[in-house]
Write a structure and sequence with these properties.
Layout: H1 4-27, H2 37-45, H3 57-79, H4 86-93, H5 104-115, H6 132-143
Length: 145
């Protein structure tokens, strides 16, 4: 059996190990020049903004390449559960989802049901009411009081 805590620990560690890459990529190229604090503040305040614009694809792509793996691992560490398919199962059993797979016949049958209004009527699964943020805020508020 897969130990969820161990998997979360591995994913979290991988994400945290990639954070220095993000920091390095954000300040590249780095040329260290020792300055006094006053000189550093004056130089920082006089730094012109780099106007890349929305059309600079290289910057967007590079940021995505750096951010995506970190986000993947850290979200996996936060959200990993042993029952990864539970959301899919709930969507198919209670909601309006249907798992088709590679069956063209099943796809054809379900499409005909949808078009003829004979497809199943789903219900909103418990806690899928769009109020997750409120519940999270309440939990965090109670935890950090």
């Amino acid at each position: 059996m897969i130990d969820a805590k161990k998997v979360r620990s591995i994913l979290g560690s991988a994400g945290l190990l990639l954070v220095p890459l993000l920091i390095y990529a954000s300040i590249l190229p780095l040329q260290f020049v020792p300055l006094s604090l006053d000189q550093a503040i004056i130089r920082w305040q006089s730094t012109p903004w780099l106007n890349l614009g929305v059309n600079n694809r290289a910057d967007w792509i590079f940021n995505a390449i750096v951010i995506i793996p970190i986000t993947y691992f850290l979200c996996g560490a936060v959200g990993y559960r042993r029952r990864l398919g539970m959301g899919l199962l709930i969507t198919c059993s209670e909601g309006t989802g249907t798992l088709i797979g590679s069956s063209a016949d099943l796809l054809d049958l379900k499409l005909r049901e949808v078009l003829s209004d004979s497809y199943k009527i789903g219900k909103c699964p418990k806690l899928w009411d769009g109020k997750a943020a409120v519940r999270i805020a309440e939990l965090l508020s109670a935890k950090f009081r």
